[in-house]
Predict the 3D structure of the following.
Amino acid sequence: MAEQKKEEEANKKKIAPKETEEKLKKCQKLKEEYLAGWQRARADFLNYKKEEMERLREVLEYGSQELILKILPVLDNLEKAEAQVPLDFKDNEWVKGISQIRSQLQDFLRKEGVEEIKTIGKKFDPNFHEALEKIEKEDKEPGEVIEEIQKGYILNGRVIRPARVKIIK
Amino acid sequence: MSKILGIDLGTTFSVMAVIEAGEPKIIENKEGARITPSMVTVTKNKERLVGILARRQAITNPENTIFSVKRLIGRKFSDPEVQKDKKILPYEIRETADGGVEVKMGEKFYKPVEISAMILQKLKQDAEEKLGEKIDEAIITCPAYFDDSQRKATKVAGEVAGFKVRRIINEPTAAALAYGLTKKRDHQIIVYDFGGGTFDISVLSIGKDTKEDTIEVKATGGNTHLGGDDFDQRIMNWIVSNFKKDQGIDLSKDSLALQRIKEAGEKAKIELSSSLETEINLPFVTSDAAGPKHLLYKLTRAHLENMVSDYIEESIGLLKKTLKEANLKPGDIEEIVLVGGQTRMPKIQEEVKKFFGKEPYKEVNPDEVVAIGAAVEAGILQGEMKEVLLLDVTPLSLGIETLGGVSTVLIPKNTTVPTSKTQIFSTAADSQPSVEIHVLQGERSMATDNKSLGRFMLDGIPPAPRGIPQIEVSFDIDTNGILNVSAKDKATGKSQSIRIEGSCGLSKEEVEKMKKEAEIYTAQDQQKKELVEARNLADNLIYTSEKTLKEGGDKISQDSKKEIEEKIADLKKVKDSDNIGELKSKTQELSQAIQKIGAEMYKAAKGKKPGKEKPEEGEYKEKND
């Protein structure tokens, strides 16, 4: 038994350098892998930071978008109400007051960077318009916007709501 | 190494995501939206539009606007599904020479593969623009029931779009991947996918030796023509019929009014997922000879649930059927994943939970979870999500006990490890020779309610008034969750430390239990903490007041001195009571009295510079980081 053990140990010693070499190789490989992973993580982090900054800028620029989108239907309805004021009420002071409230709201939106999209007379452009209906009309160019159903808006250069329009067939 | 794009190529919408810094992230399209309509058109000017732009002109150009092409891809013309869809879809569909399908857009006929490729190409371009790098590879998802021909067609679409398609994976598998459920073995998962236009059920089975990419789909079921849109339609019908009843006007013929009703209905549906009641408010919805008409209805969650109960019942029935086909009982299912926007509806979540007796996974945005899962798969392929880089988080907060038995958190729960944090503390009494650092774990406000992980003493602090010594306490957790806590007296440099193993090693149940307790006792704990803080404040004020009297007593009038002494005595009396109101008011009184003295002292010391000493704000307080 004892001799066998000795022999084993001797064998171990003999092959030790090779084993060590293999181990070293393995370690080196692992080291490279870990270093690469670490570098990648660092790089990812730095990139992430840059992107976060970019995102923050966007949030600042478009952060009010959600809120504005929720306010717009109120303005739509005010405009609808105004458009349907009966003729004999047009000069009513009370009605004028309501119009003034509407323009106050529009003024607020303008100051927040919200712009109205131009529609009537323009060529239909899906970048800005959403077509709801096609109408036949002889003296007009096909594809021209003939009626605005709902106003569209741009916030800091980005369409936050396309204008809903009727176009010429 | 360039990124691999994960794409959920959906019937109505498509979503894309990539792995960034080891985490999946949705990529917005050029228009700034997280989802892109799966729609393509060719305009009169031969201009090709994809996504939202195609949708904006769809109504006026229905015969040239292709949507839902996923219903056709890889199918034969004779397929009953195709025949069914042919009746519904507004564009022309015809048979190719080899029995396949073609759709007409503009003057030309296209194969569904080509249409899908156009959608994928847009996603590719938008992603490249957004990420600022070229993207050549993609993982695309498809329904579990897709056969070989449909999968092949999806792959070809990816290739036509310019991708090297690394893999086509099943949508339910992607959803499971997004939740990290595929790591477990010997496991049955149900994916309940209620989208806008389709309802899919998949039973996934992960065996003992299953590899990630060979997750078996045991059964699929559902209804390819049932979805959230049907719910919207019901709400629309309800509004229209109500209005007809109330006002005698049929709005179903008025396309502009219908448009507004449709939007308002969808909005109401979404709102009712988070609130119990909502208002459908459409002033000037129409007008007749008598003038304008307004529409205003209240809709409750219960009413909506009632309105669509048959759809929900149908989905549960299909669930039963699919399970039966897989030879499984509800109890055999370990995990349930909810996918698709309609699963945000509380009633659906409730019914699914009731059916399985288990809480389904629903935390990831159900519209995005499939794309997220595709990105996770991409991450695995890229090697970014290697085991070694999967970082743990601390399940519970770690901190120390401070004056009055308060638990002060140094590392909050859900902090990614490895991490470390250092904070400076001080003594609570004059000439205090040592401090005890008692390391705690848990979310409760008071030390005794949290788990004690260990404690040690740091002694040999040179005599100094309270609040002056600076004891630097550092927490450091390594990747294995081993916590090292050390305390160092900055004056002497003396330090002590403790090593706590398994600070993260609580079982899931234990962690949940502790979190739940913390939730239950939040209000109570807050009260206790407030009391202790008020007591600390009182204690501190007594200390400074006595000190002021001792040091400057000769500069003030006897009357004032007596007043303060009385107020101090008063405060001392209530200091240890639990009456927080009284404690606060007495503290306030003393504080006001002592401030008056301060003014008196300055007057007496006129000509001299004001002293530097300010009242200390309470001991064991953070002084800096």
Notes: Residues 398-520 of chain B form a domain with the Substrate Binding Domain Of DNAk; Chain A, domain 1 fold (CATH 2.60.34.10). Residues 573 and 583 of chain B are 9 Å apart (CA to CA).
